[in-house]
Prior knowledge:
- The structure holds two protein chains of two kinds.
- Chain A has strands at residues 4-6, 11-14, 19-25, 30-38, 44-50, 55-57, 60-65, 70-75, 84-92, 99-100, 104-109.
- Chain A is mostly beta strands.
- By secondary structure, chain B is mostly beta strands.
- Helix content of chain B is 0%, strand content 50%.
- In chain B, strand 9 and strand 10 form a beta hairpin.
Amino acid sequence: RKEVEQDPGPFNVPEGATVAFNCTYSNSASQSFFWYRQDCRKEPKLLMSVYSSGNEDGRFTAQLNRASQYISLLIRDSKLSDSATYLCVVKNRGNTPLVFGKGTRLSVIA
Amino acid sequence: DAGVTQSPTHLIKTRGQQVTLRCSPKSGHDTVSWYQQALGQGPQFIFQYYEEEERQRGNFPDRFSGHQFPNYSSELNVNALLLGDSALYLCASSSGPSNQPQHFGDGTRLSIL
């Protein structure tokens, strides 16, 4: 079983739609959680960290369920510019590397 | 304030050759991590350098080696290239080996023929 699993998509949604991405992780020792965004042929960029209490940044909401080892990202009012691959990332405590999922591809259509 | 810079942008090699990729970390960062991203996959951790030493290593063979210089820049060397080494190689820097977030460079796209 892969350490971080995501639905690869693609998710094709119209502008203005709400879309949710899910991610599960297998290592219960994971301490830090992130969503990265990666545009085609570009580097990953941090979208937001994910906190146990859930957190929101504009149209983006991230949730963490430690008991179920599940992370989610909700995008409201999708824009064309949201089209990208969204990578779920986990990290253990201390000097440990980031562990990436395969990513979920989103295409927002006019 | 320069971000993470990588060179070259693209590279084409043949099987059996050797390659060196370079990375300069973001200003103020002292830790460099290297990742390999194959097509359709997420980045996979290769290794991390801090204080000119390899501190962490992922599940990559010894053909993958690296170096960090006193100015914190880093090189990734791959020997005896295989077709499966074709990928985007990403360098990420941070301030300290445990700190987040990591800032990624644009990557080097390596194609093996």
